[in-house]
Design brief:
This protein is α/β, with parallel strands linked by helices. Among the domains are: 179 residues, P-loop containing nucleotide triphosphate hydrolases (Rossmann fold, 3-Layer(aba) Sandwich); 111 residues, no CATH class; 86 residues, no CATH class. 49% of the residues lie in helices and 12% in strands. The chain has a seven-stranded mixed β-sheet with strand order 5-8-4-9-10-3-12. A two-stranded antiparallel sheet has the order 1-2. The longest helix has 25 residues.
Length: 575
C-alpha cells in the first residue's frame, strides 16, 4: 500500500498528490516502495544477527537502538539441551616454520602476491599436509570413532579446493601406510580442478573422487546420504560449511581462517543433538582460542544494535564515485530514459542500456589498474548500501535513485583486472617445521548482552599516489608511449594548449555528447590542429619543433585528447 508514501512524498515536494505528475513515472513508483509500509511486516529468523539485520528487522527503541522482537539465545538453547556447546572441547595448534630461497638471485616481485605465495607454499608443502593428515586420522580413531556409540563422524574444513584434494590424497596415503582399512573418506567441493603439481594433469571433481564402500561412484546429490550412512571423514572446501545438518557429526578439524559470523556458522555444524551424543570436539590448526571467543560472544546471549546507520554516508560514497571522472549527469540521464521507457522488450532495453554505457566503460578502461580496482570497490559499495538503506527508510531523492539505477547496471559491465600470481615453489625450501599445541580445554563465553557497533559506510581506500593535475596526467601519458626527447619546453607548450582547449565551449559540448572513439578519432584532431596553428601564429618559435616532429605532434594530441574528454564530460557534474 503506497498511499501513505505518496502522501509523504507530496508533502516532501510541497505539492498535492494529484500534482505529482505521470502515474506511470517508473522512478516515483520505485521510490514509494522504499522503507516501511503499514500493511507489510517482515520477519527474520537467525542465530547470528548482523548489524544490518537488526536495523532492518529489529524493534526501534526510544534511545535509538534496535532490539530483537524475541530472543531464544545460544546460551539458553545449550542450557536446555536443544543444542550442544561446540566450544567445550577445543584444541588449537600453531605451526612454526622457516623458509629459505634456493637461488642466489633476489628477484623483484609484487609484495602482496609474493607474501600469499610464501604462505601457500608452507600450507601446501607435503611435509605440512603429511603431519596434519596423521593427526587427523589418529584423532578420528581415538576421539571421533568411539563417540555416539561408535557412529561419530568428522569434518575437515580446508582453505581451498586444491587443499581439500591434496588432503584427500595425503589421508588416503597415510591410511595405506598404517594399513587402516576401516575409515571411509569423502570429499565435497564445487566444480572441477586440476592440481598444478600433478604431472598427468588429471581433472578432479567431487563425483569423480567419491566412492561408496562397494566401490560405486557417488554423485554430488548422493554425497550427504552416503556420508550419513557409511562415511567417516568428510573433507570440505566451502561447501557444507553452512546449512549442513548431520547430527552424527561429532568432530571438526579446521585448517582455514574463520572470522565473525562465518566462524559461528561453520563450527555450529557440530551442535546437533542425537541419542548418545554427549559432546563435540574441535581441533583448529589456524585460529586462536581468543579469535574464536571473540567471534562467538555476540551471539551467545542477546545481540542489539547501538543505533541506526547514518544515511548521509551514501552521499559520501556518491561523491567518491564522481571524483573518478568516469561518468556525468548526462550519462545517467541517457540510461534512466531507456530504463523508464516503454519501447521494446526487457532484453532490448538491456541491450540499449549496455550501448549507452559503452563510453563510460571506455573511460573506466583508460584508468590504471589501481584506480580501476578502487572504482569497482566503490561502485559495488554504493549499490549495496543504497539497496540496504532503501529497505529501512524513504530517501525521496530522485537524483540519488537515478544514480543508483545507473551504477547498478554499470557495475555489471566493468571488466576486472587479471590477478597477479607468483609461483615460489621452485625457489623456496622448508628449512624448519614444527606443530605445537597452544590451547586445550573449554572456550568460556561471558554471560552478557552485546551491542553491535553501528554499520559503517566506509570510504574506499584509493591509490596512494598523490592526485595529479591535468597537465601531469598528459605528460605522464606521453612519457609512457613516446620515446623521443621530451623537454621542459614541451611541457610549457602542452600547458598552453590545455588552457586554450579548456576554454572551447564547442569542444566541451562535443565531449559530453559523443562516444569516446568518435570524439578522439574524428572530432578532436581538427579542433586540436586549429588550436595548435593559432598558437603557432602567436608564438612561432615555441611551436616550430612540435610541428617538425610528427611523432611528438601525435603523441601530444592523443594524450591531450584523452585527458580533455574525461575532464569535459565531468565538468557539468562539478558545476
Amino acid at each position: 500500500d503506497t498511499a501513505d508514501a505518496l502522501q509523504e512524498y507530496a508533502e516532501f515536494e510541497g505539492k498535492h498528490e494529484e500534482e505529482l505528475g505521470d502515474s506511470e513515472d517508473v522512478i516515483l513508483k520505485e521510490m514509494v516502495h522504499h522503507g516501511n509500509h503499514k500493511n507489510l511486516s517482515f520477519f527474520a529468523f537467525t542465530a547470528t544477527p548482523k548489524a544490518r539485520t537488526l536495523s532492518t528487522f529489529g524493534m526501534p527503541q526510544e534511545d535509538g537502538s534496535f532490539k530483537p522482537f524475541h530472543v531464544y539465545s545460544m546460551r539458553q538453547a545449550i542450557e536446555e539441551g536443544f543444542i550442544l556447546d561446540v566450544l567445550k572441547n577445543y584444541t588449537t595448534y600453531q605451526n612454526f616454520y622457516r623458509l629459505a630461497k634456493t637461488v642466489e638471485e633476489n628477484p623483484e616481485m609484487p609484495t602482496t602476491p609474493a607474501m600469499k605465495a610464501a604462505r601457500r607454499f608452507e600450507q601446501m608443502h607435503p611435509h605440512n599436509l603429511q603431519s596434519k593428515a596423521a593427526i587427523i586420522v589418529e584423532t578420528y580413531r581415538s576421539i571421533t570413532k568411539p563417540a555416539i556409540a561408535g557412529k561419530g563422524k568428522m569434518m575437515v574444513v580446508t582453505a581451498s579446493r586444491l587443499a581439500a584434494i591434496r588432503y584427500y590424497h595425503e589421508i588416503q596415503r597415510y591410511l595405506e601406510q598404517q594399513r587402516y582399512d576401516d575409515i571411509e573418506i569423502l570429499i565435497a567441493f564445487s566444480g572441477s580442478l586440476k592440481d598444478p603439481a600433478d604431472p598427468d594433469g588429471q581433472e578432479y571433481t567431487e563425483s569423480g573422487m567419491n566412492k561408496d564402500s562397494h566401490g560405486n561412484r557417488v554423485s554430488e546429490q548422493q554425497t550427504k546420504a552416503v556420508f550419513h550412512d557409511e562415511g567417516n571423514i568428510l573433507i570440505v572446501a566451502e561447501k557444507y560449511q553452512t546449512g549442513f545438518d548431520e547430527p552424527l557429526l561429532h568432530s571438526m578439524i579446521v585448517d582455514k581462517k574463520l572470522r565473525d559470523v562465518k566462524a559461528v556458522q561453520t563450527l555450529s555444524r557440530l551442535n546437533r543433538i542425537y541419542p548418545g551424543k554427549e559432546d563435540t570436539f574441535i581441533l583448529d590448526f589456524v585460529n586462536t582460542s581468543e579469535e574464536i571467543r571473540e567471534a562467538f560472544q555476540p551471539y551467545y546471549q542477546e545481540t542489539d544494535l547501538e543505533e541506526n546507520i547514518n544515511i548521509n554516508g551514501i552521499y559520501q560514497k556518491k561523491d567518491e564515485l564522481r571524483n573518478f571522472k568516469i561518468y556525468n549527469d548526462e550519462d545517467i540521464r541517457k540510461v534512466c530514459e531507456i530504463y523508464s521507457g516503454k519501447r521494446g522488450s526487457e532484453k532490448s532495453r538491456q541491450g540499449r542500456i549496455s550501448s549507452a554505457l559503452k563510453p563510460v566503460v571506455e573511460m573506466y578502461n583508460s584508468l590504471d589498474s589501481k584506480q580501476r580496482s578502487a572504482f569497482r570497490r566503490t561502485i559495488r559499495a554504493f549499490v549495496k548500501w543504497y539497496q540496504y538503506i532503501s529497505q529501512i527508510t524513504r530517501m525521496f531523492d530522485r537524483e540519488l535513485h537515478q544514480e543508483y539505477l545507473f551504477c547498478s547496471y554499470l557495475s555489471k559491465l566493468l571488466p576486472g583486472d587479471p590477478t597477479a600470481t607468483v609461483d615460489l615453489d621452485s625457489i623456496l625450501n622448508l628449512e624448519f617445521y614444527k606443530l605445537e599445541k597452544t590451547f586445550e580445554g573449554t572456550i568460556v563465553l561471558e554471560q552478557k548482552q552485546v551491542a553491535l557497533p553501528l554499520p559503517e559506510i566506509k570510504p574506499t581506500a584509493l591509490p596512494d599516489e598523490p592526485k595529479k593535475s591535468l597537465l601531469d596526467e598528459v605528460i605522464e601519458s606521453i612519457n609512457a608511449k613516446y620515446q623521443g626527447d621530451f623537454t621542459e619546453a614541451d611541457r610549457v607548450i602542452i600547458g598552453d594548449l590545455l588552457q586554450r582547449l579548456l576554454k572551447d565551449d564547442k569542444l566541451r559540448k562535443l565531449a559530453r555528447s559523443s562516444d569516446a572513439q568518435i570524439f578522439k578519432n574524428n572530432q578532436f584532431p581538427k579542433i586540436f590542429e586549429e588550436t595548435a596553428q593559432n598558437a603557432y601564429i602567436e608564438s612561432t618559435e615555441r611551436y616550430t619543433k612540435m610541428f617538425e616532429d610528427t611523432a611528438k605532434y601525435f603523441a601530444i594530441m592523443n594524450a591531450v585528447g584523452n585527458a580533455l574528454y574525461r575532464e569535459c564530460r565531468n565538468s557539468k557534474a562539478k558545476k
